[in-house]
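Example (one chain per record):
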Amino acid sequence: MLLATTPPNWASWTFRLTLRGIELTDDQLNTLYEAGCDDGSFSVESGGSVLGFFDREASTEHDAVISAIVGIEEAGIGARVLRIQADDDWLSASEIAARVGRSRQSVALLARGERGPGGFPAPVARQRSSNPLWSWSEVEAWFERYDPHAVPAHGPRLSPDFLAEVNDRLDIRERRRHAPHAPWRPKLNEALPLGA
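Predicted structure:
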């Protein structure tokens, strides 16, 4: 039996794509899988958007992201990508504690400002519940400043500049789709050329 191995210099890139144009039927899921998106999981969100969560092996961030976008959009099911985000885990205090080697009580004290330097990130979800959720990227950045030895090593991350440029292009494409013959576009292209 042959085992699949990751080629040298490849890394795992984690990101989330927001899609439109599909309902996420079983047939559409099978088509996405066959189109090379077998490393993604998909869910339908309120409002009809579909999220694709990817953990893609590639040598560069742009290879990972662009291949996922192309795979989705060339699958022939009418899906189009609207946005990309770096995937961010939302964790409870217990899950944060496990990642940084502390007790849940220690993390709760940090979160309330009763221990440590203060400025711990606010929860991003379930703020009023007994088990709120924090953004791991925000918590990780806080620990990197105040207790860097507590933070486990992490894999490569998508650069903010790359994310911004991909999202800018996706936004422009959507605007052109909604207003293909906008009267302001020639003057705008002259004043603000994209190649500048």
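Caption: The CA atoms of residues 99 and 153 lie 10 Å apart.
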